[in-house]
Amino acid sequence: MNKIQGDNVLRGCLLILLVFVFHLSSFSSAYAAPCYGTHMPEKKHWTWGVEGNVIVDRNVDNDRGGVSVNKYFLTGSYGILPWFCFDGKIGVGDVRWDRASNSGLSYDTGFAGGYGFRIKGPGSEKWGMKSAAGFQHICVHPEASNQDNVKHETIIDEWQGSVVVSKDIGRFVPYAGARYGSADFIKWENEHDRKRIQSEKYYGAVVGLDIRLNKRLKANLECCFIDGEEIAAGVSCDF
Q: Which of 17-31, 58-72, 76-90, 110-124 has the lowest mean pLDDT?
């Protein structure tokens, strides 16, 4: 087997892995990490950046209200192969639960982190077109909230699979695509009665824009809707 054939086999295996993980996520439910667009670091190179990501509103199942989440990260992506990269992030986040039958409940800032990977899809250099498929996971662990002598604790558990297509227009690279995922709201009170409440909807649309500030530095803005409202913005640099 030559190098090209070996690369194609490995690429096919990773695509199967993506489908498998995506299939598993449909059982545990998941949601909305930013899709990153189609820009990927070169092999054995890094892309580092900072990112703010806000879930404006995400309804949870069984009429249990909705959640909003603020997250702020240091991000890093590493090019493992020319068409495959690993994405990671670490930071902080806070959560608000707007209960359907009661007053809202806010959880103070705590640890947040995430990981994922992306696979470069087909494209056209002539037309400046690129595509990418990815899988992302984020967990937010805010501080406990005390209300009416009850200790409320929560974890926001986000999973997402996505496919996006971009078009180069000079310094601007708009992209759009679709995703499937959920933001599970895991809660418990006084360290008992742990429950996982899944998202109300799972399918969403993604639109975003990369702005090249110079050869290595870019800014990004991304919005997600249909399954919930989410906005992400950040700046990153290739190394």
A: 17-31
Whether the pLDDT of residue 27 is over 70: the answer is no
Under CATH, which architecture does the 3-238 domain have? Answer: Beta Barrel (2.40)
Residues 197-224: pLDDT tens digits? 888 778 889 999 999 999 999 999 998 8
Q: 3-state class of 3 per DSSP?
A: helix
Domain boundaries, the chain: 3-238
pTM: 0.78
**Residue whose C-alpha is closest to residue 223's, from 68, 70, 53:** 53
Q: How far is CA 88 from the centre of its chain?
A: 10
List 184's β-bridge partners, or say none: 157
- In sequence order, the 6+-apart residues with CB closer than 8 A to the CB of 64 are 99, 100, 185, 197
Q: Please state, in angstroms and rounded to a whole number, the distance separating the CA atoms of residues 127 and 138.
A: 34
